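A common beginner's mistake is to predict each chain separately and then try to dock the pieces by hand. The better habit, illustrated here, is to supply every component at once so that their relative placement is modeled jointly.
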Amino acid sequence: SLGWIDGSIALSAMLTTEEAPYAVDNEELKMDVEDVDMTKWTEEEFEEKCTYIVKDHTWEGPLENTELTRAIPKWNNSGLYLLVTIYSNGEFHHFVDGLVEEKSNWMRYVNPAHSQQEQNLAACQNGMNIYFYTVKAIPADQELLVWYCPEFARRLNYPASGEIMMQKLKQSLIEATQQVTEIKHPGKREHSVSEILKDVLQEPSRPLPTRPRCPNSPDRPLYPSAVYPLRPSLSEDFLKTTTVFGLPNRSHRQCSVTPSPSAHSSLESSPESSPTPASLEPRDTLLSFSPALYSRGLNHYPGYSPAGSMPFYPNPHYSRYLMPHYPVSSLSGPPTLGGIFPHMYPFYSRLVPPHVPFPPGMLPSEGSRQFLLPPDSLAPRDILLPAATSAFSAATSLKDKPVHGHGNPYAPAGGSPPAGSAASTGRVPTKPTSAILSTSRSEDKAINLSKMKQGSTGYKTLDYPLKKQNGKIKYECNICTKTFGQLSNLKVHLRVHSGERPFKCQTCNKGFTQLAHLQKHYLVHTGEKPHECQVCHKRFSSTSNLKTHLRLHSGEKPYQCKICPAKFTQFVHLKLHKRLHTREHPHQCPHCHRNYIHLSSLRLHLKGYCLAVSPSPSCSLDELNRVNEEIERFDISDNADRLEEMEGFDVESMVEKQIFGLLWQEMDFKASYHKGSTGGDLHPPPPALSIYRLNEHGSEDSVIKVHCSSPIQLLPVKVKKETEEAMET
DNA sequence: CTGGGGATGGGGCCC
DNA sequence: TGGGCCCCATCCCCA
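With all components supplied together, the output reads:
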């Protein structure tokens, strides 16, 4: 009974069953549904009152039905595509693009309702998904016609109903037509189209200025020129499913935007009841489900503000930096898309001059994935686009505050330019972190929405389960087992392993795992050095470097060589210095060729591992050599230094543990051992190797003693790294 | 080889 | 929950 099959996916049960045509719960079903205007429901109401959703499933019916195939080109022929914007936490998240047949679903074939009377579906966002809720009974053979629920429409900057949209469309068409007339007389305009076009066309070949100016505030830099992170959670699948809004006819590649302030303002003021002289057939012209481009998510971009709050700024220079994520198609013919749908494209329409073709490599038909590729591989770097969020607040925060302990080092005075004030008005970019798309559950059965909702937040967004410890969730990295106090810390940490660097610098394309790192990095391009030494007034880009520098004034040299009196202000210098000593092993075994840097290493060696003395009959030569190798490795490690510095500690015992841990790890053997002095049940003694140990009186025991309190803690002991405190002892 | 500085990575904590 | 900030560690470059 449905004509909305694309050959692979079909809408099923919910809309076909006469008994339950409504996606409402049983209680609601008892109501006289005709009395309820569900088109006025909010998304929350839809969500609350809807009991079942019907998942897509493969169409198992006959495909040769000509009725079905006829439905398919309906959109394509008219240049209409389903393109839905998904928001997450109020921010743009991704698009669902109906153009990609294999990745979209039957929704792409549902036409928009151009009157409330004919509307029988309401589109709502639920989580990361778009749902069509039935708002009235849908008999068999009735066409599905959808419009947004009011809330969703508002978020998309759409009119509340299809009728209003149609009125606006017609009005916009008039405006657009007038605009075309204006364009033919460039003398009336501040910039001619050709001027703008020329400028834009030349732009890609220009080097990127480090600090582009914000069009709204010429004296303020656009800050930073970093591009917003490519959404980190973009899986390959996601990229495939969210390709770009495209053109049906590639001969029409003109980007279409509404550039004219007058057009915009007139539209703003155009009443919804404006006359409708244009005789447009709605189905042929309406761009259904085109997105409200970043109507929220990009508000924080400099140069962008919600519709009506700011005049259009035809700055082609700036537009190079801030383009929407995807090219925008136009309807064929003079009325540009932006002219017709200025509300749909509030962002883009402000940034790109009219009739500006897409830069090479960024043609609409080429897909959004290109935006995610390295710029060098396809388009000028300038075109590297911001994703849903940006790092524009970068550095702003840095400068808006005095640095701790140093007067006002951010003062623009010392040559450090004022940081992007433009960003100060911007919103902090939303996360680049991994929002797991909860799009595809394949169950055919109905899913409880509330349950689904619960499963998509918090730690469950991780792709592996977290353990619990003492009733609390243990935020442990599943790769390096490092634990964190907070989930957010773990999430950030996981980027270390995944290689995910969602914060991209637009200037040099370098990626960073954290926004703060990008912010700091941006100072490289600006040359800004916000941290000033109060003694010599030398400026530094980072507090760390300033702190290091301050040691020069204080004379503090916290890193001291243990072998010679050399002291250093930086640890790295000590490390380099230590290499000089690595060839020197002052502690030589009197019985064999082995020598050690540390006395404790030699002593350990002498405690039973010296082959020349008296190797244990229970221990093979290979095993002893292995132990000695580990002692040597330990000897040249930083751990040896650190252990030596520890007072009141059984160093030898610790050394043994260290070495033993290494062996345990690397050889995967288990040493045999006795129970500790306190007794207690330990693991059964492994047979492979006996390890020797000195007892408190200096005589050798035949086995290494493992303290009962830590029978299996044989991994190298975590010791605080060489710190100033440690060095001072 | 030493010393100074620049740049970046990683993580903790606070809000 | 995630951004912002801070700190420490580390690597690298250069004089």
